[in-house]
Probable transcriptional regulator
Amino acid sequence: MLLENNNTLEVIPQIITNDAEEFLFVAKYVQSLGYKELNWNLGCPYPMVAKSGMGSGLICNPEKIDNILERAHKETDILVSMKMRMGYDHAEEILDVFPILDQYPLKNVAIHARIGKQLYKGPVDLEAFERCITSTKHKLYYNGDITSVEAFKSIQTRFPSLDHFMIGRGLIADPFLPQMIKDDTTEYPKDRWDIFEEFHNTIYSQYDEYLSGPTPIKMKMLGFWEFFSQSFSNQQKTYKAIKKATNPFKYKQAVSMILANERKLKS
Ligand SMILES: Cc1cc2nc3c(=O)[nH]c(=O)nc-3n(C[C@H](O)[C@H](O)[C@H](O)COP(=O)(O)O)c2cc1C
């Protein structure tokens, strides 16, 4: 969380709340650490969160959103950005929120083009997202299902006025994706698996440093492999091999085997 630990990429802290006091407390705290921006999560779809009026469950309450934004802008000078779905029950909910959002100098509004009720299932609703573009003065970032260079191009072609796109799961599944999009190529680097291995080892060793015991690190890495495995030749076999590894030694062996297999397939 300390700014000096996040000095390669810009990290933006995020809050999920429906309480103005809590928002102000966190805003002031992150500012005291040196952060300039706070992102507000109105996207979380999980019923426990949404049913208590937070995350995507807050989108249907423009008054509360207004109250929190008003206090945030009156009582702090933090830059606020939003991360939202288009509603919880209906994709039209967000349309009543835009007139409120337009009253504040938000940095941007990133929209995951689904509704909360969908969780992560079903397609993104591009028509509803298109309505959002014409319903606000704010800069919108598109988010949802960008999992390949082709998928990115198709979204970019559909929404030519946008210049910011957010990638979530697709980035973990394929860490090369953002660079390939930037380079407009579907070619992986020649040393793809060496780069991946180094990336994996960095994540592993940094978590290993502060997580104690073999189970937490295994669970943490398993979370990554749920997505990493999607880029491997045999997704299910890859995930299973990691899941089966019962200790750090076996885990490292499994990773080596998985990577050796990919290198063999390539040559
Ligand atoms: C396991 C998981 C955890 C997530 N946690 C957050 C979060 O803390 N904050 C947030 O804004 N979005 C969170 N998201 C949502 C993603 O940021 C993104 O909006 C969503 O996955 C859709 O984009 P994608 O199709 O590119 O993944 C999470 C998604 C997943 C799958």
